[in-house]
Amino acid sequence: MIRKLFFPLDFSNLKFRLYCASRRLLVLTTIYLSACSSLQKQNISDPVAVNNFINKMVVKHHFYQQDLSQLLNSVEIKSDIINKISKPAESMPWYKYRQIFMTDSRVEQGVKFWQENAKTLELVSKETGVPAEIIIAIIGVETFYGQKMGTYRVVDALSSLAFAYPPRSQFFTNELEQFLLLCRDEQINPLEPLGSYAGAMGAPQFMPSSYQVYAVDYDSDGHRDIWHNKNDEIASVANYFKKHGWQPGQETLVPVSATGEKYKKVLSEGLKPNLRVEELDLANLKTLRSLPLNTKVKLLSFEMEASEQGNREELWAGLENFFVITRYNHSPLYALAVYQLSQAILNKKGEFP
């Protein structure tokens, strides 16, 4: 039986109880009881870091060392996870990245999702100020409306990146800590949740730390279920945007046209709006929709497919709400895909009575 401080004693998954009992016997008869020696059999590259992690969980959160040793001994360190995180899709040029998300099926399924969850979307949008189409587009980009939530065990993904990927070890060690805490709080078997290769979870693909802060139990059933409960999924995404400063009723992106190449001098790193609209005028730039002159924007350039006239690019003025979308994923390509998908869904929905 798993001890109470690791999982509640009334844990209802009988299959998991039997599994734990068999694993406990295997641990006791085939390996040392120390975390370090047990994890060496899983080809962990840094067993000292693993042992330090277990000790931290014991001291800080009152987990039992033997329970954590048993759990982490079940972890599979996967090399393909390391390969994938080293080559994210956001390294593509915009014209290729766009093709992944701006498809007829993703737009049509977005309209269907809206129709099936219209009441919750209306209520949540009214409560938070976040438009329904933005909420839907996030879930559409992340998991095709909950249909593709990932095939990796979350505990495997987080452990692989925490203990076998030094460039992001600290970040993913913290995420593993938060994952184990939420599993204990929500009475979830940590060997069961599936997610992305980076350990993102559920329809909105929250990392464990984001889940802890932003996930919502919208229907008050005692669980923040972002895997199976559409109400919780929708409310959690909206809560994320509200907490990050979404400005209800304000613009997100405005197309920009340029005369000459003077505009290149005001292109800069970062995503936070840093230019007034009047400064765009000085760089021979015009927004295709009028904005107050004191509005702060970020000039953004997106690579389009080359033509006979040479390389092409799209220019956009990103406002504060665009910056908020980039808090979900720091890539401007991601944020533009979300915005354009949201508008396509909104327009498509308008075709139906």
Core attributes:
single chain, 5-stranded antiparallel beta sheet, globular
Describe the structure.
With 353 residues, the protein is an alpha+beta fold. Helix content is 51%, strand content 10%. It has 16 helices and seven strands. Helix 7 (104-116) packs across helix 9, helix 7 crosses helix 16 and helix 9 crosses helix 16 (332-349).
Largest sheet: 5 strands, antiparallel
Helix and strand content put the structural class at alpha+beta
Q: Give unreliable regions as ranges.
A: 1-12, 25-42
Task: List SSEs in N-to-C order.
Answer: HHHHHHHHHEHHEHHEEHEEEHH
Overall 3D form: globular
Q: Number of helical segments?
A: 16
Side-by-side strand order of the widest sheet: 4-6-7-3-5
What level of helicity do the residues show? 40-55%
Alpha carbon gyration radius: 23 Å
Strand percentage lies at 5-15%
What is the terminal separation in angstroms?
Answer: 56 Å
Name the average pLDDT. Answer: 88
Number of strands: 7
In short:
The chain is of the alpha+beta class and 353 residues long.
Secondary-structure map with pairings?
Blueprint: H1 14-30, H2 35-40, H3 47-61, H4 65-73, H5 79-85, H6 94-101, H7 104-116, H8 118-128, H9 132-143, E1 152-153, H10 154-164, H11 169-186, E2 194-195, H12 208-214, H13 230-243, E3 253-258, E4 275-276, H14 277-282, E5 285-287, E6 296-307, E7 310-318, H15 320-328, H16 332-349
Antiparallel strand pairs: 1-2, 3-5, 3-7, 4-6, 6-7
Helix pairs in contact: 6-16, 7-9, 7-16, 8-13, 9-13, 9-16, 10-11, 11-12, 15-16
